[in-house]
Amino acid sequence: MAGSHSDRQGTILTMTSEAPIFNKLTLRMIAPVVLVVCAVGIGFYFFVLRTISDYAEQEIRASLARTTREIYDICDSNFTTLLQSGQMGNAKMVRIRRALTLGAIEDYAKRHNLRILLRERKEKVLLSFQIDSALLANIAKIHQKSTTWNLRIENKVYYFHHFDFKPWVWHIDLISDTTPFTPLIDRVKAIYAFTIVVLLLGLSVMIFALARGLRNPVQQIIAAVREKRPPDYRGIYEFEFLSHNIAEMMSSLNSHTQWLERLYTIGTTHRGKNLFHAIARVIAEAMNLNTAISRAEEQGTGFRIVAVAEAKGHSLKLDDLANGLPCELLNGRSEPTVIQHGATEQFAAFKGIVANKPECYIGLAISDRNGRTIGCAHLFGEAREINDWDMQFVKTIGRMVGSEFELMEKERDQKRISEQMLRSQKLESLGLLAGGVAHDLNNVLSGIVSYPEVLLLELPKDSKYRKAIETIQESGNRAAAIVQDLLTITRGVATTKKPLNLNELVKEYLDSPEFKKLKSFHPTVTVQTNFDTDLFNINGSFIHIRKTIMNLVSNASEAIEGEGNVTISTMNRYIDRPLKGYNDVKTGEYAILSISDDGPGIASDDLQRIFEPFYTKKIMGKSGTGLGLSVVWNVVQDHEGYVDVKSDENGTTFDLYFPLTRDEISEKELPLSLEDLKGKGETILVVDDVESQRDISCKMLDTLGYKTVAAGSGEEAVEYLKGNTVDLILLDMIMDPGVNGCETYKRIIAIHPHQKAVIISGFAESDNVKEAQRLGAGRYIKKPVTLGNLGLAVKEELEK
């Protein structure tokens, strides 16, 4: 790469031995010159030809003119003699004088080898000397003018001239062949031949000069390039200069090719840290500059060095290099930063640069496909001139390093996704187990939760059994809450969503008895709020999101040892790129509920498992069940949101993302009393495969003033309704054996198309619930059933 001409770049074309004939130098350069010279020569030749031809024609015309004058003088002399003699009136003398004149003309023609045709009044031929029939026929076709004509008759050339002798009305035609002009014509031919020879000689000299001065040097240079050796032409200065520069470029290109081949080898045989170190060494050797490659931290907190290499003869000081490179200065720049002299002074604020006192510096931001800076390359050392090849070399290396960074990040993401899938499968398996257990427990708990409520209505207020029944009811409710948590983590409970405001939910919870009880357990923990006053609403389940807030605040309070703070914040945010750890995040508007504490944080190993059911560091049965964060995760997922957790030694923050809605919150309804829930004697068919569940439901409906009919299966209910009608059906979704609740409802509406129904289940399948409601069923209530929610659901459905 070094050298006096290393800053020149060129492309050496590999030429085939037989180039297309129209692309060769002979036709592209020499042939046009030859053609131009030939054209000029031909023009010159015809110019000479024309000039000499005009000269010969003038000479011939002059000769014929002299002959004409001499013959005319003969005629004129005889006519003058006759006129002077006074015998013009003597016809005999006139005839004699005319005869003498004709004789003199004929003698003149014989002496000068002329052909003469003399006619009187263009009709009567008085003299025809050496005029044959062919000549006579051609003369008859010629317009009689005083001019010279060039005639070709039977491959012989004749010169023709005509004049009139008016005193005697004679028309005289003079015809001469080329014999008198042979010397002149021979001289003209000689001049033609000489001109051709001169032109051919000049053309030959020019072709020789072009071949020697242009074609031969070019052929020598081309031959050397074909043989892949540097040309070494000596002679003409311009071709010497061209040969020298081509040799320089070939040498430089060979050197560049070797570096590129070395980079290619590194790229195909190295990975990760080995690749970065090998590339750094190549840069240091190729450009004789110290090299450092840094990578952006995953958390976006800065850059860390992944490879360094020293230039030959240099000692690189690494003490301040890690935190003393201008990475942030390069961040976002598309073109390299180049300083050829005085780098130390310009980067005085960067200890890593100053410690090594470089004069030259090249910095390149390494970007991914989206233009995000993911690393930097730093080259620094002694002052040097930076040329185009250097810049392209650095950019090539930047692309190689960037590709490796992206590949490593992709592999890391794939590993994280694999771990997420494994964790999801694990959660799904645990959820199925928990759901099955919850379904059975719900059936067991129905009697424990529902019967005490009916008994308390019938017992007098001073009964000695009231306290025991209330204790049973409270224990059943706590057990039912755990079961509901199990159902929530399986997402097996259909939830009713409506517009909610997170600010109002948090305020309601902070005023609730549950929070006051929590405060009594953690009196040194302060709960602060930071609400966005313009927070948008979300579509959500009041019960589930309230339970989520309660779980997170409880966990945050328990994480603080001694005094501390728990902060509940809300805000609006538009998501335009994936959240870290989420590859399927949807872009759009979200309301964020953030709950943070200043506790010791969560260990990294535990952070990977905090959302697993039953995973807890607390004492099981005393401080918790291990379901709290699982409930949080599944509630947020059920609301099509996302959970982002950040934790370090300074505390933990849970950010819950909920999609926004533009719907308004409806006015709160006042709670109904028992009297408000009572019916008017309507008939209700209770369909449940568990006898104890049917008895509980019938007992509660009887208490509310309804008439009840019980069916132990879907088939039995359909059969009953073939001959009877009821006002409402209380339908269990899961029945075994037999058809399930959804299929039962389909068969019932085939008999009674507008049959009203309320759905009830301990472990509802969301698809079946939605399908039944789509067909016309009303509200859904979950087991264990309370008198209040059963009475409200039935009342609302009957009043539709």
UniProtKB/TrEMBL annotation:
CDD domains: HisKA, REC. It catalyses: ATP + protein L-histidine = ADP + protein N-phospho-L-histidine. Keywords: ATP-binding, Kinase, Membrane, Nucleotide-binding, Phosphoprotein, Transferase, Transmembrane, Transmembrane helix, Two-component regulatory system. InterPro entries: CheY-like_superfamily, HATPase_C_sf, HATPase_dom, His_kinase_dom, HisK_dim/P_dom, HisK_dim/P_sf, Sig_transdc_His_kin-like_C, Sig_transdc_resp-reg_receiver. The keyword ATP-binding applies. The modification 4-aspartylphosphate is found at residue 732. The chain crosses the membrane at residues 29-48, 190-211. Residues 436-662 form the Histidine kinase domain. Pfam families: HATPase_c, HisKA, Response_reg. One of its GO terms (molecular function) is phosphorelay sensor kinase activity. It comes from the Bacteria. Residues 683-798 form the Response regulatory domain. Its EC number is 2.7.13.3. This is histidine kinase. It comes from Desulfosarcina widdelii.
